[in-house]
Every structure is written in structure tokens, then in C-alpha cells.
Amino acid sequence: MNIVITGANRGLGYELTLAAVQRGHKVIAGNRSPQEDVNLLELVSRFPGQVKPVQLDVCDEASIVRLAETLRADKQTVDAVINNAGILLGRGVALEELPIEDVVRSFEVNLFGPMMLIKHMLPLMEEGSSRAILNISSEAGSMSNAYGGDFPYAISKTAINMFSKQLKRYVKNRGIRVYAIHPGWIKTDMGGEKAPGDPVESANGIIDILEMKKEIDSESFFVNYKGEPMPM
Ligand code: NDP
């Protein structure tokens, strides 16, 4: 499979990239500064021909268009897109103190970026039997989530869930699967040291979903990394 992954240089995105190439897939590894990224360069030499780092800022439509043009010029199709890049701003900040720019930026990275990427990748996803779009979401975006606060993050993740639902309907007749996925609370820069979850396990579960190794009800669009349905 040819898989586009955003934010592939660290955290869950890096583990997704590693899990995918270990299983023989090719990854177009979106990364804001690929020349500087040692993690991805190390994967390029460990898995020759399987990892292609590309400059991709999900908020910069020009970088997305450049990627689409390069893939088209190379006659490459895309089997799967994993919208992984995300930011968590305004943690613990009272609403009365919250800079609205944090809300705007959260929507730019967590919602508009994924939408722009899909806009430009869909025309490259014309063929293939196991095509999929996986939007990495969070239980924070669930209407029934038990936590308060984190306004910018939570509502931007609710929005990506809604986008995923709409998109699932939109591409149904093209045979493309769409899921919003909660990866679990995992140890990354975002999740922090206290997180109980292992990003390697989460990444492998997500690649299992991509490879259709999990039984998921056809109506489900918001699931965890094990493929189990999440409450909306
Ligand atoms: P990290 O903060 O560890 O990594 C975030 C990644 O996103 C980095 O690669 C970062 O790149 C990239 N990124 C941020 N902004 C942009 C942008 N504008 N364009 C391209 N890339 C960007 O986060 P995690 O790995 O923990 O999170 C991955 C996903 O999982 C996110 O969507 C997050 O919301 C979700 N999630 C994580 C949880 C957790 O416990 N960790 C829990 C629930 C959901 P750079 O290095 O350039 O900053």
C-alpha cells in the first residue's frame, strides 16, 4: 500500500510510519522540515525505497498541492491517508483567559489541514481494493467525554469526527473506508510521560484497521485503535 502520513517525524506519526514499513508498505512521510529530521532519515536508510519524506505543513495548501503534483508526475496513486498531525493548545486555560487564536489555530491544524489534504489526495485514490482515510481523533472530541476544558482541542476533534462521518458518506460509492480513530492516551510529547498507553501498540492497531484485520461494523466511523466503536 502507498500510505500518506502527516506529522510522521515524531510521536504517533513516527510509530505509524515504522509499523507500516515493517509490514512492507510504502510511506509518504509528511513532515514540516524533512531535511532536518533524523528520525525519518534513519528510517530511509533502514527501509530503502519504502519511506519518502516530504515537506508537508498541513496548514499550507501550497505544500499539499506540491505533494499531489509530485505524486501525479511520478504516476503514483495513494491507497491510504492517515491524518495524524495534531496540536493541543490551551490545556487547562480558563475560558475567560483563552486566546481565541488558540481556537483558530487548533481548527487550522486539526480540521482544516486534514480537509485540505483529503481534497487534494482524493483524485489520487482512484484504484485499489483496500483504500482508506484514517483521521486521528480523540476521545476528547466525544460529546460524552468525561473531561471539561481543553476547549480548542476538544471541539476541533468533535469537528473532525463530523467531517469523518460526512466524508464516509461522500466516498461510500468509491469503496474508500473512512474512520476517525482515538489512539488511546499514549506516551508522546502530547500525551506526556504519565500516559498509560504505548504508541507502538496504538500504531500497530491502527495499521491493522488499515489492513482490514479488525472486524468493524459497517456503520461505525468513530473507533479506537482496536477497532472498537467510540461513543459520539
Ligand atoms: P505529538 O505532539 O507528539 O506530535 C504531533 C505531530 O504533529 C508532530 O509530528 C508535529 O510536527 C505534527 N504537526 C503539528 N502541526 C503540524 C502542521 N501544521 N503540519 C504538519 N505537521 C504538524 O502528538 P501525538 O503523536 O501524541 O499525536 C498524534 C495525533 O494523535 C494527534 O492528532 C493527537 O491529537 C492524537 N491524539 C493523541 C493522544 C495522546 O495521548 N498522545 C490522545 C488522543 C489523540 P512538528 O514536529 O513539526 O511539530
Characterization of this structure:
Helix content is 38%, strand content 14%. The chain contains 6 helices and 7 strands. It has helices at residues 11-22, 38-46, 61-73, 100-121, 151-171, 199-210; strands spanning 2-5, 26-31, 51-55, 80-83, 132-136, 177-182, 222-224. The protein has a 7-stranded parallel sheet, sandwiched between helices. Helix 1 packs across helix 6, helix 3 packs parallel to helix 4 and helix 4 (100-121) packs parallel to helix 5 (151-171). The chain is globular. It starts with a strand and ends in an 8-residue tail after the last strand. The mean pLDDT is 96. The structure holds NADPH dihydro-nicotinamide-adenine-dinucleotide phosphate. Residues 6-7, 9-13, 32, 57-59, 84-87, 109, 136, 138, 183, 185-186, 188-191, 195 line the site of NADPH dihydro-nicotinamide-adenine-dinucleotide phosphate. InterPro entries: Fungal_SecMetab_SDRs, NAD(P)-bd_dom_sf, SDR_fam. This is SDR family NAD(P)-dependent oxidoreductase.
